[in-house]
Design brief:
- The complex is a heterodimer.
- Chain A is built from three helices and 13 strands; from the N terminus they run E-E-H-E-E-E-E-E-E-E-E-E-H-H-E-E.
- Chain A is α/β, with parallel strands linked by helices.
- The longest helix of chain A has 18 residues.
- Chain A is globular.
- Chain B is an alpha/beta fold.
- In chain B, helix 4 crosses helix 14 and helix 8 crosses helix 10.
- Chain B starts with 8 loop residues before the first strand and ends with a strand.
- The chains are: A alpha/beta, B alpha/beta.
């Protein structure tokens, strides 16, 4: 296979330059199945889509460059590190694993996500965490270092979103949590009432919430080199769904 | 508030026949019938009756007649009983009126204005009893050309799914329908060699063995969608729209989200399962293409991917976009398509009849030279085998049946699916009601229906002198219109009878 070499620690390096996305993903799958590497390093990634989608199991995929849409869509297991920015659809309907973006991510980050965690160092686009879900212990988590655009957590049915507003970033998103009927959104910093969807309530995080924040912010800091205790000082607010059935009252039966 | 509405149905109990056995009381999940201890006899509260006929069918002495309440308002062509009823209900509740099943409005049923041809003298008809008749249908993208070298096929074929007859069970989600109903559809599909469709409710673990016969849906709610679900399927369907409610999503009410529904959909028990109106990763044809290929990537290009849209004004243009986006199958769901719950105003007013949509889409795809790139499935209002054959002659590859399958299972179209109460055990998660459906018997009813229709299709095909359903596809010369205006004939691409 051209452009691949095996280094000492079970690390396989692939030069993705000029490789069509379909061929690249086929190659990744082949490497994963045949060589059982701990890490696959992709260099010169230029917009190839669906990286990590079909790989099921534990492996780290380090991406240098810019991966294309639907990075880790339906993903089940791998850890993806993006040393760059992620485009739209990152973590779409993801099932398990980790995506760590050392930059920013585009729209619909973690749409319909069912499990696993996504960490983004800076900001995310519109409709992040839209229709995220949870079932019993399977709770997806998204931690964003900066802030988000509008419609964060729209129709959210479960899971945890943490928006940190690091580097004094103010939150300008509107329609946050519109139609939300499950899950929690934690925001570090201020949001005004007009920024929130009609279906969300606002309160202080409780003790259990603090644990969730601590665990996930600590993990966030291990990737991006921040000090957890500083970030955990907050102040944090918690958005929660006011109703399990937000639209039940709309209808005449 | 005192309601000004009279009951929708009258319950007439013939006291001479009634033996006070109380079967009607146990059969009615709406609690219409009750035993009055003081009077010592079975009585009823008519306002609770939905007219599903369950009690009448199960009454051992035929003592019950359930019929629409006469409600003798002064007749008015404009202010019909229904307009009056709905308006009053809204004045009393302020709510959007919900309804189940396909529209009951008299939108023109084009099937009933189209007649079929038969061979006479110049081309002999074929007797399906003594000659082979091919109904087998393959769904999937077909290549522009085949390359054959030394008798071997060189061209790599896109994935195809095989149907023994051009009929499929349309999307009915577990959650909307009972476990027993989904099991029956799955088993029947397996037995007759067709496919059923999970809708967007996922496939319960215990029905995994039927994955080979399942079209699994990826809809805006993405319920139960993971790699196992996608891989354990015959085909994947992206649901963009539904004929009964084009342009809007769906809310499975929390009461129907039971333990097993919650596990299958992977959402907490008792919360609404909300399917948003659009898929939020699809705002354009390019985005649709992204999802189509995400699903193909996820399943290693081994499954055909279908895209289902409601039949609307610009279906033809949309369909070419869908085909060019990479879909292997286009599904068109017409105005008369069914639903478990929809706002009545949308069900009755949005969309176009499937007959016109099939013809428009088939014509457009042919004009653009891409008809082979995708199969077309027609859905929404297929009531009998003649509708199937007319749909195929208009240009469909196969049809979905939903309401017809429900009726085969026992549905009486009372339109109350959204209440979560179904006395026939079909559209409910109440274990007491759901267990009324015996999957052994219901499977047999569904199998019988598909077999009967298939035999009728063979008879009609033979009559036309055609021995393979392939030769009928888009063969509009076999059709003639009756009582249709010029524009209708033009859209349908058929001549008038006698022409």
């Amino acid at each position: 296979m051209k452009g691949i070499y095996l280094s000492k620690n079970g690390r396989v390096v692939v030069d993705a330059k000029d490789i069509y996305y379909r061929d690249l993903n086929r190659l990744l799958q082949k490497i994963f199945v045949e060589r059982h590497p701990k890490v696959i390093e992709l260099r010169n990634v230029t917009g190839q889509r669906y990286i990590g989608t079909r790989i099921r199991g534990e492996v780290e995929i380090d991406i240098f460059g810019t991966p294309g849409s639907d990075l880790g869509a339906f993903m089940d297991g791998p850890t993806i590190k993006v040393f760059g920015n992620a485009q739209d659809g990152c973590g779409n309907t993801m099932n398990s694993g980790r995506i760590i973006v050392y930059g920013h991510a585009g729209d619909i980050l973690g749409m319909s996500m069912r499990g696993g965690k996504i960490f983004v160092k800076t900001d995310i686009g519109y409709r992040g965490a839209i229709h995220m879900k949870e079932y019993k212990e399977k709770i997806p988590v998204i931690v964003v270092g900066g802030t988000s655009q509008d419609f964060l957590g729209e129709y959210m049915a479960g899971g945890v979103v943490i928006l940190l507003g690091l580097n004094n970033k103010s939150h300008r998103a509107t329609f946050i949590g519109t139609g939300m009927h499950g899950g929690r959104i934690f925001i570090r910093g201020r949001v005004e009432d007009y920024q929130l969807g009609k279906e969300v309530g606002l309160e202080e995080p409780n003790e259990e919430d603090r644990k969730v924040l601590e665990e996930n912010i600590t993990e966030f800091c291990t990737y991006f080199g921040y000090e957890p205790s500083e970030i955990l000082k907050g102040p944090f607010i918690k958005l929660y769904p006011k109703y399990l059935r937000p639209y039940g009252r709309l209808y005449a039966y | 508030m005192k309601s000004f509405l009279l009951p929708e149905f009258l319950v007439e109990r013939d006291e001479n026949r009634c033996i006070q056995c109380k079967v009607c009381i146990t059969q009615c999940g709406f609690e219409t019938h009750y035993f009055d201890e003081e009077l010592g006899r079975v009585m009823h509260k008519e306002e609770r009756c939905v007219g599903c006929q369950r009690c009448a069918v199960f009454c051992p002495t035929n003592a019950l007649i359930i019929r629409p309440h006469p409600w003798n308002l002064r007749p008015h062509a404009n202010w019909t009983k229904e307009r009056y009823y709905d308006l009053t209900k809204q004045a009393e509740t302020g709510g959007v009126i919900l309804v189940g099943s396909g529209t009951d409005k008299p939108h023109r049923i084009y099937w009933d204005h189209i007649v079929l041809n038969a061979s006479q003298v110049t081309n002999p008809s074929i007797d399906p009893l003594r000659e082979p008749m091919e109904l087998r249908t393959y769904l999937g993208s077909k290549p522009d050309a085949l390359e054959i070298k030394d008798g071997e096929l060189e061209t790599e074929l896109p994935p195809q799914v095989k149907l023994e007859t051009p009929i499929l069970f349309s999307a009915l989600s577990f959650g909307a329908i009972s476990y027993q109903a989904q099991e029956s559809l799955a088993r029947a599909a397996k037995e007759v060699g067709i496919l059923f469709n999970t809708g967007e409710g996922g496939l319960p673990q215990s029905l995994k063995e039927y994955g080979k016969y399942a079209i699994v849906q990826c809809a805006s709610g993405r319920f139960g969608v993971d790699l196992d679900y996608l891989e354990n399927s015959a085909m994947i369907e992206i649901k963009i729209g539904q004929g009964a409610k084009p342009g809007i999503g769906g809310h499975l009410p929390g009461e129907k989200v039971s333990e097993i529904v919650s596990r299958t959909r992977m959402i907490p028990k008792g919360t609404d399962a909300i399917s948003p109106a659009p898929q939020h990763d699809i705002y354009s044809i390019e985005d649709l293409s992204t999802l189509i290929y995400a699903l193909k990537e996820a399943t290693n290009y081994k499954k055909p991917v279908a895209v289902k849209i409601a039949a609307v004004h610009n279906s033809a243009a949309i369909a070419t976009g869908i085909v060019r986006a990479g879909a292997d199958v286009v599904v068109l769901d017409g105005l008369r398509g069914g639903t478990g719950a929809a706002p009545k105003i949308i069900r009755d007013n949005v969309g176009i009849p499937i007959e016109l949509a099939i013809a428009a889409v088939d014509t457009r795809l042919r004009e653009e030279g891409i008809r082979n790139r995708a199969s077309v499935i027609a859905a929404g209002g297929i009531r009998c085998s003649a509708d199937v054959i007319k749909a195929i002659a208009l240009g469909a590859d196969a049809v979905y049946i939903g309401t017809a399958a429900l009726v085969a299972m026992g549905c009486t179209l009372c339109q109350k699916c959204y209440t979560g109460i179904c006395n026939w055990g079909i559209c409910t998660q109440d274990p007491k009601l759901a267990k009324r459906l015996n999957p052994d018997i219901t499977t047999e009813r569904l199998v019988n229906l598909v077999k009967a229709w298939s035999n009728e299709i063979k008879e009609m095909l033979g009559g036309m002198g055609i021995n393979s359903v392939e030769s009928l596809r888009g063969n509009r010369l076999q059709l003639r219109g009756i009582g249709l205006a010029d524009w209708e004939l033009k859209v349908l691409g058929i001549k008038g009878a006698g022409e």
